[in-house]
Amino acid sequence: MTVTGLREAKKQETRQLISDQATRLFMAKGFEQTTIAEIAEAARVAKKTVTNYFPRKEDLAFDHQDQFVASLARTVVAREPGESALAALRRDFLGAVERQDPVAGFAGPEFSRMIAESPTLSVCLRGLHDQREEALAATLAEATGAAPGDITPRAAASVLGGVHRVLFARIQELTLAGRGNPEIAAVVGPEAEQAFALLEPSLGDYARA
């Protein structure tokens, strides 16, 4: 491995260590009650190192937020020939349920409780959902060649993103009720099919590749 590669690997290792220690403390003490100084001490780095890697405290809890925000748009871009945006998103979500993907909401009871009990993280999560819909709207506009100012991509993204919000919240709800991931997947899979089917009449052919 080159010197540059080693340096980058070390940065990623440090970033992951800080994130892991922060999440452990957040789940044990609560997000609002945990300080940056405590995280730095647990990770054995300087406070400045923590803020260099994670400018906002919320970033420490949602360290996969970029992946989350880009997920719906990325799925539409990668849709198969002849596949609509709705079909691609339904297929991808059902795959995520089968995998019990944390990005889809299968984050476990401790993490889910941490978010639910923190006003700051609950607001941040809503903001991430908003950003995800905005990214999806931009991708749908490009995919359909929509004219500037056309409301259709934004409306479609809001509806498609809304289903994902509901399903994400459903997974959290079942998690906090004490259900295990396999049981949650067995419940949410059919519910997702039902939810996406509601959109078929209006969006079944929209943004077909």
TrEMBL record:
Record flagged with keyword DNA-binding: yes
DNA-binding region: 35-54
InterPro entries: Homeodomain-like_sf, HTH-type_TetR-like_transc_reg, HTH_TetR
Organism superkingdom: Bacteria
UniProt xrefs under PANTHER family: HTH-TYPE TRANSCRIPTIONAL REGULATOR BETI (PTHR30055:SF234), HTH-TYPE TRANSCRIPTIONAL REGULATOR RUTR (PTHR30055)
UniProt protein name: TetR family transcriptional regulator
Domain HTH tetR-type positions: 12-72
Keywords: DNA-binding, Transcription, Transcription regulation
